[in-house]
Amino acid sequence: MVRAGLKPELLLMVAKVYIPVLFPATFLIALVSVTLDRRLGFADGFLPEGPNYGIAAVSFVGGALLWLYTYEQLIDRGAGSPSPTAGRTRHLVTTGIYAWCRNPSIWGKLFGVLAVGFALNSFSFCFIIIPILLTLSLIEKVVRQEPQLVEVFGEEYEAYRKEVPLFVPWKIFFRRR
Fold this sequence. Notes:
Elements: H1 2-6, H2 8-40, H3 51-78, H4 105-120, H5 123-153, H6 155-163, H7 170-173
């Protein structure tokens, strides 16, 4: 997994997107959430004080590892980058974690950003704002990214899309017999 994190194409994507955009956005969301918690009567949080930091650490580390693993799959098996600006993948990745859901990196990002909400002990962050942003992100995937993938990979992607769910890996819970 460390190999993927050190590859230039992934470092370029992190430098262009995550540092200048997503980190400040997370900070702004945290400020809004804490204010919203006070107004909605959740100022005391929803987790026991103290363990919330351990939960946050586990969520962050697990999310980061999952995120790196999914991107490593795209870089190694897809022969490209998860980011079009760093060179889109040349092969459709349908094996490994991508056999379970079409957007597994969102799970890593979700656990990573929820770590902030757990550390802040913010009900609004974890259960109001992040679910809204997750929904918008999934809509964006379907409306903008999936047509691009159909254009690039054609029938191969169409077949993959019919077989593999967008986000929730239902096969884990409901195995066919």
